[in-house]
Write a structure and sequence with these properties.
This protein is of the alpha/beta class. It contains 4 helices and 7 strands. Strands 5-6-7 form a 3-stranded parallel beta sheet. The chain has a two-stranded parallel sheet with strand order 1-2.
Length: 161
């Protein structure tokens, strides 16, 4: 049975809202806040925080350890989560087809994923409006926006569902 693994560099929940369940968020997720001091996952209260009088500057939530709670994403200069990156590399090495959609192919270590798939014998398909650093790794490069190309490609491959 075919298996689909989505590896994304997006930090929102776009893929989950579209119904995907096996999503690896390489830079983390805005929906998984954690403590900047102890690293503990934090659950934010529901709703919008009450804004102070006369401005939008809000203090960050505080963890039980006293540290500030931050978004659960990687900031510049920080490493990607080791577990997620390892799972992405393993999925690439085990896949038959890899779609690289809407990426420059330049940001390491995520840019290694198509190369790992190609080295393992997978067909690598790039969908992007312009040429990228991934061109030499691709079996096919399809030029255009993902919102136009992917529905057409899926329709051609699987017909109406």
């Amino acid at each position: 049975m075919p298996k689909l693994t989505i590896v994304t560099q997006n930090v929102d929940d776009l893929h989950e809202r579209a119904g995907s369940t096996a999503v690896l968020h390489l830079p983390g997720s805005l929906h998984s806040p954690r403590c900047a001091t102890c690293g503990q996952a934090h659950i934010l209260p529901p709703g919008i925080p009450v804004e102070p009088e006369g401005g939008r500057r809000l203090s960050p939530p505080v963890c039980i350890c006293g540290g500030f709670v931050r978004p659960g994403v990687v900031w510049f200069g920080e490493d990607l989560p080791v577990r997620e990156l390892r799972r992405a590399f393993e999925a690439a090495q085990a896949c038959d087809v890899l779609f690289a959609i809407g990426t420059s192919g330049l940001v390491q270590p995520a840019a290694r994923i198509p190369s790992l798939a190609k080295q393992a014998g997978a067909c690598v398909v790039q969908v992007n409006p312009t040429s990228t650093g991934l061109d030499r790794e691709c079996t096919w490069s399809v030029r255009g926006g993902a919102g136009e190309i992917m529905p057409n490609l899926l329709q051609a491959a699987f017909g109406s569902a």
